[in-house]
Each structure stands twice: as C-alpha cells, then as structure tokens.
Design the sequence.
C-alpha cells in the first residue's frame, strides 16, 4: 500500500527531502521497483498535509451535504408525490421542521397517510408469515447458517410485535406512520451529514488520491440520496398494507442499520482500491 | 419506576458498548500510525536455549505428519529442540504415525501417549509438561504449518528475563474454500494485525492464544502450571502470568498458518468453546485484577478487564436490544429533539462501524486489497458470533458442566480429501 512507513512511522515531518529520497533508494529493487516491507512491519505514514486536507475534505463535504439538505428534502418530497399514486399510497406529503442549535430549521418531508392497528385477519396473516420464516430457517441447509440466524432473529422481532398488538389495548401503540416516516428521514439527514466526517477519519487518511476520495464520497452520498426516499416508500407501503404491526422490525432491522450497511459496502470497495503511490 | 430502571440499564449497556467501540478505534489508529514495538524480531544468532515443542493431538492422522515435518525442518539447533507430540487417546492412526516418526528421529521426536486422566488440551499439557525439560515450552496445534524460522522467532523474546509468554500471528491458509473462511481470514487479520499488535505497541495485555506461542517453563511452574479444568488454558495462563508480574509478548512477524473452520456448525462450536473458556477466565481473574497488584499499572488493569469481558459483550448487546425494544413499545424516548437524533444516529453509524474499520485497515496493511470488498458480509459473521456467544454464556450460567467432565471438543480438519474432515464436528470423544 502507498506511503507505508519504515515500520516505526510517525517521524515523517522531521525527515528532510534528501533523507526521504535516500530512504526511498534504500528500498529500490534491482529492476527499479520498490521492495515492500513485510506486512508485520507495515504502518501508515500520514503526512501533515494529507491529514489537513482529509480534515478539510471531510468538513467541506459535511458542510456541502448540510447545505444541500433543504433542496434534498424538496427532491424527496417531489419523489414521494410522484410515486404515491402509482404505489396506491393514500394521503399526501407533509413537512416537519427540525430545529438545529443556532436556530437553523430544516424541513423534513413525511407521508401523511395513517396506518392502523392490525385487523384480526392481518394479525393472523403476519403470524403465519412469521411462522413461515422460522420454518424456512429450519429448512435451509447448514451452509446458509447466517441466513437462518437472520430469519430467526427477524421472526423473533416480529413475534414480539405480534405479542404486543395481541395483548395491548387497541390504539395504544405510541407511533404513527407519519411520525415514523418523518423520523426515519430526519435520522437519514443526520447520517448523510455524519458520513463524510466518518470517511475523513477512516478513509481520507489513506493514500488513495483525491479524485477517488471525492468520487467515493459522491457515489455513496448519491446512492443514499436516492435509496433513502425509496426505502421510506417501501416501509410506508408495507406498513399501510400490513398495519403498524410491521413497524418495529422494519425500524430495527431495515432502518438505520441498512444505511450503515450501504456505507460499509462502499467503504469496503474504496478500501480495496490500490494506493495512489507505489507500494513501500 | 420501571421506565427509569430500564433507562439506567440501557445507559450502562450503551456506555460499555461505547467503551469497546472507542477501544476499536484507538487500537486501529495506533496500529496505523503508532510506533510498532517488535523488539526481538532481529535476533538471529544467539546461544539458543533448550526448547520443547508440545503438539497436543487427538485423532489428528490427517494433519500430524505435516506438523512434525515442519518442526523437523526448523532452523533451530537440533540438539536443543525436542518435539513432543501428545497423543491424547486417539482412536485413529495418530499413535502409529507418531511412533513411526519417533523411530525415524530418535531423541528428537518423543511422543507422549495418554490414556487416562481428564481429556482435553489443557489436561494433556498439564500431564506432559512436567515430564520434559527445556527452558522454553512452545505449543502448536496439530493442524498448523510453521515456517522454518518460526521457532527461533518465538524463542527470541525469552532472552528478556521478564518475558513469561510469547504469541505469534495466526494466518489462515484455506482462505478460498468458502465465504466463511474468507470472513474468518478478515477477522483474524483484524484480531492479530491490529488488535494484538496495538496492545503490544501500547504495552497493554497481548493475549497468549494457546498455539503459535509458548511459555517460559520457570514462569509456568511459578504460577502453578497449566490449568486442566479450563477450556481456555491460554487466556487463563495469560492472566496468571500477568498477575504474577510476567510480560506477555506478541510477535506480529512470527506467522504460522492454520486451517480455519470451513463450515458454520464447526465455527459455532469453536466460538462456543472459546466463550465458555474465556468466561471461566473472567470469573476467575476479574476480582484479582480489580484488586490491582502493586506492580500492575492502571492501564494494564483496564485493558486486562476489557479483554476478559470481550465475550460478555455479546449477551450484553442482546440485553441492550431487549431493553431498547421494551422502551420502544412503551413509547419512551430517552432524550428529546436534535440531541437525541444526533446521539442515536452517531451511535448507529460510528458505533457499528468501528469493527469494520479495524478489519479493513488490517487487510490493507496486509496488502491484500481485493478481500476487503466482502466487508459488508462480516455482519453475518457478527450475527452468528453474537448469538453463539450469548447461547454459550447462558448455557454456562444456567447449565454449568460438572468439573470432572472435560472432553476434546476439537475443530474439524479438512486437509487430505475433497470431502475432508476427520469427523470431529460430528462426534466428540
């Protein structure tokens, strides 16, 4: 990987350009290539300049996302308006405002359609589907163990929801679909602002080349900007048809966690890119 | 009242999880840019001490020859290297293979056949070690493949009189067999390349891992020898040495190659065995560590406790989920407004991400970039580990095994056949 230090690392700024050149020559192979250090000794030398530019890029990207949240909320609202009809979701699109420290307010769209408690038929159908998940997990071969565990985990969350709606008095569930969709989108807005900061400390410090760092950031944020409203629409559609019974597992498993996994997928891809400079 | 209790419990659990998250970030950043301590790696010529290499083996006919050949080929003075394969009640051809090797290499390979006493690796080591000399006792599992210079590398730290145990790096060699082996390769990279090396750098508590490492015999005897009644004799000896004032050293350069489990049931059994053993060590050593012997700095006590508690995090996380779900259904939001939003999303992103950062950094330091692309699949490995660790812990709490029942619960081997396996995953003995 690029800029691998001479093992002990960390004294980069004290090394003069001439000494750095000599150090580079010491690792020059007979055909001009670089003799890489053993992986056990490899470290990462982060020149101050890269550290500073990583911080600047992270802050600039976060500030850019923050500034774009308003137009993005508008875009999401229009996406909802365009797709509510074809999806058969009743109601319209509302806007709630999150107030940030300093008095700045940010609009967050939400679906105004209301979902109710499950009817006895819906409750039974979801119970059967939940039992089906457990049976499917038992039927899957052992090589699908992670999927088996995931299905059982999902079934457990749904079973708790079934128990709650089976036992609690009608109308007692403390959340509504409009509040849920608005809350999920507000959390997603914060995630979008935070992600460049996370990338700053965990990705920009590596020697990838600035073009690729910017590219990965744009691809990630662009992906999420499109993904999030569609995710909310899918959640809304499912909750409208399956009642509030589906809200807890959707929130716990397919909400914020899904954003993190999208981030991890892009991050893993980016971290697999070779260094901008030659191996050292 | 119930709400307050649940909120306090949740806050405590989140605090513990955040501590481990911060630890992940701190170790990873240290490994990236910190000063790497590898103080003994350059020792190549010396008056080498007498070494005994123990290879506990139970039904290892598929792999034991490879291990013995690798040990015989070591770049270590032959008159100072004694190889002791411990045949613990094998019912396959292990005993015959060992005797054949002993016949071909008299004085160098000295098999120790066990037919009585407690079963298991710890008991086998406890029985065998007093019968053999050597200033340094190294231990390898039978399926490992050490390179020629490994014994020298592992012995070199013992020139330092304060060192009581040494541990090398374990690298899987059957990586491309399945998604699981690829995930385990990533996990191992994170655990050794980052976690162990960072603890070494920071003078904390590198863990002796039971194989690809060893102990100074005098130190071992001073702390009472191997504990035969634990499933994690490695963690146990790490803490007994630590409490007695000995140093444990990690050698990142000393790599040895192992077979990782190729199927999930084997992996689950492995995790559950590790969990049970590690929790035994937690129960045994947490209080003595908290009493903080005068020679132990606070950072060692803190890191030691965090390391001891690693396997307790799984059930704690599940409890946290249960409490969070209860609060969710009760409609309780711990904090209101923007602060809550920021705290929850930051916890969700930064907290969940720490382990991925550690693993990706380790793989990048290793220079094998392509494998990082499967990073998101680690979530499945984490899920299986989380549930297996929790299951083992609950079983341990509510169904403790009788002390006298200690059996080999070994990992399945795959070398030497398309279908592979020695049946270890199907039958215990």
Sequence:
């Amino acid at each position: 990987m690029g800029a691998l230090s001479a093992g002990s690392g960390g004294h980069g700024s004290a090394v003069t350009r001439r000494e750095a050149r000599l150090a580079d020559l010491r690792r020059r192979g007979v055909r001009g290539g670089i003799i890489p250090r053993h992986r056990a000794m490899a470290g990462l030398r982060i020149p101050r300049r890269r550290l500073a530019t990583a911080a600047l890029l992270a802050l600039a990207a976060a500030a850019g996302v923050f500034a774009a949240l308003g137009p993005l909320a508008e875009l999401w609202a229009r996406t909802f308006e365009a797709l509510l009809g074809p999806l058969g979701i009743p109601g319209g699109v509302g806007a709630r405002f999150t107030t940030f420290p300093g008095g700045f307010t940010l609009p967050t769209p939400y679906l105004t359609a209301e979902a109710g408690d499950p009817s006895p038929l819906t409750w039974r159908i979801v119970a059967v589907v939940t039992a089906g998940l457990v049976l499917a997990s038992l039927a899957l071969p052992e090589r699908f163990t992670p999927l088996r565990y995931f299905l059982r985990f999902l079934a457990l969350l749904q079973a708790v929801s079934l128990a709650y709606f089976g036992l609690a008095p009608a109308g007692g569930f403390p959340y509504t679909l409009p509040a849920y969709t608005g809350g999920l989108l507000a959390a997603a807005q914060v995630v979008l602002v935070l992600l460049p900061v996370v990338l700053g400390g965990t990705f920009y410090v590596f020697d990838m080349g600035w073009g690729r760092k910017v590219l990965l950031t744009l691809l990630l944020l662009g992906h999420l900007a499109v993904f999030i409203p569609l995710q909310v629409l899918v959640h809304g559609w499912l909750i409208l048809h399956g009642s509030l019974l589906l809200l807890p597992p959707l929130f716990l498993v397919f909400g914020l966690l899904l954003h993190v996994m999208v981030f991890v997928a892009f991050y893993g891809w980016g971290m697999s890119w070779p260094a901008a400079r030659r191996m050292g | 009242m119930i709400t307050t209790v649940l909120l306090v419990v949740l806050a405590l659990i989140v605090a513990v999880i955040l501590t481990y998250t911060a630890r992940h970030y701190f170790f990873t950043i240290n490994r990236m840019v910190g000063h790497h301590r590898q103080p003994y790696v350059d020792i190549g010529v010396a008056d080498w001490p007498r070494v005994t290499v123990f290879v506990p083996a139970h039904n290892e006919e598929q792999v034991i020859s490879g291990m013995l050949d690798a040990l015989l080929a070591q770049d270590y003075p032959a008159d100072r290297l004694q190889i002791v394969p411990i045949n613990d009640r094998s019912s396959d051809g292990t005993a015959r293979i060992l005797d054949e090797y002993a016949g071909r290499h008299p004085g160098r390979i000295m098999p120790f056949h066990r037919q009585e006493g407690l079963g298991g690796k710890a008991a086998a080591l406890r029985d065998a070690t007093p019968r053999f000399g050597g200033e340094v006792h190294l231990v390898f599992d039978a399926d490992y493949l050490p390179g020629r210079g490994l014994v020298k590398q592992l012995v070199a730290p013992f020139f330092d009189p304060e060192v009581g145990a040494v541990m090398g790096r374990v690298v899987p060699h059957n990586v491309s067999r399945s998604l699981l082996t690829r995930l385990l390769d990533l996990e191992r990279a994170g655990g050794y390349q980052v976690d162990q090396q960072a603890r070494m750098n920071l003078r904390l508590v590198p863990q002796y891992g039971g194989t690809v490492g060893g102990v100074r015999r005098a130190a071992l005897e001073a702390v009472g020898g191997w504990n035969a009644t634990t499933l994690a004799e490695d963690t146990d000896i790490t803490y007994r040495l630590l409490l007695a004032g000995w140093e444990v050293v990690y050698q990142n350069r000393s790599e040895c190659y192992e077979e990782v489990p190729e199927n999930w049931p084997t992996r689950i059994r492995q995790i559950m065995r590790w969990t049970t053993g590690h929790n035994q060590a937690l129960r045994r050593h947490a209080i003595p560590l908290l009493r903080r012997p005068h020679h132990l700095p606070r950072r060692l006590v803190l890191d030691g406790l965090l390391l001891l508690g690693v396997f307790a995090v799984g059930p704690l996380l599940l409890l946290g989920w249960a409490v969070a779900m209860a609060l969710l259904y009760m409609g309780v939001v711990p904090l209101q407004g923007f602060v809550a939003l920021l705290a929850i999303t930051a916890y969700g992103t930064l907290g969940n991400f720490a382990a991925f950062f550690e693993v990706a950094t380790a793989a990048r330091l290793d220079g094998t970039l392509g494998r990082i692309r499967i990073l998101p699949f680690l979530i499945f490995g984490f899920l299986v580990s989380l549930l297996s660790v929790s299951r083992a812990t609950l079983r341990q709490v509510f169904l403790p095994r009788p002390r006298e029942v200690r059996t080999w619960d070994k990992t399945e081997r795959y070398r030497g056949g398309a279908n592979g396996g020695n049946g270890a995953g199907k039958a215990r003995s």
About this structure: Residues 1-10 of chain A have pLDDT under 50 and may be disordered. The CA atoms of residues 216 and 270 of chain A lie 7 Å apart. The radius of gyration of chain A is 25 Å.
